[in-house]
TrEMBL record:
Protein name: HTH cro/C1-type domain-containing protein
Organism: Nemorincola caseinilytica
InterPro entries per record: Cro/C1-type_HTH, Lambda_DNA-bd_dom_sf
Residues in coiled coil: none
Record-linked Pfam families: HTH_3
Length: 80
């Protein structure tokens, strides 16, 4: 498969190369339609993308809970 240059991938996605770079670096997260566009462009299943994002979100919240205490509002996080 031909490897796309970042500017070409951004053009196909309808976003700026800077926006794509921020997604790739994990500094910003694509949402909504852009998430589906990424899945279509890179032939990834959106369920896989969402699963990875959910895993990261659960880990981040669990880390914050251990940092700030699990007693905040009686919230408990379930592992996926």
């Amino acid at each position: 498969m031909h490897r796309l240059k970042q500017r070409d991938a951004a053009k196909l996605l309808g976003v700026s190369p800077v926006q794509l770079m921020l997604w790739e670096q994990g500094k910003r997260m694509p949402i909504g339609k852009n998430l589906y566009k990424l899945g279509a462009l890179y032939h990834a299943l959106n369920e896989d993308i969402y699963f990875e994002l959910r895993q990261e979100a659960v880990a981040e919240v669990a880390e914050n809970m251990s940092k700030y205490g699990e007693g905040i509002g009686g919230i408990h996080i379930r592992s996926p």
